[in-house]
Fold this sequence. Notes:
Layout: H1 7-16, E1 20-25, E2 31-37, E3 59-64, E4 69-74, E5 78-83
Antiparallel strand pairs: 1-2, 1-5, 2-3, 3-4
Amino acid sequence: xxxxxxxxxxxxxxxxxxxxxxxxxxxxxxxxxxxxxxxxxxxxxxxxxxxxxxxxxxxxxxxxxxxxxxxxxxxxxxxxxxxxxx
Length: 86
């Protein structure tokens, strides 16, 4: 399994894949592993975005499949990511 550290590639894969696993450093300096997506077909309909707003260029938003909610991570905090076999 190859670990990727390219944040732009992570954003692309979040848009294309149902489940991407990634690890990042939270604001409190703890390490967090997340399973996420931005692919609407993988997100419950009641959690779909209600509208559009301009995203901050310093963060990546994703739907957290474990928590069942939208979350974000600072672009500079990514440690690595890889796709989860479906």
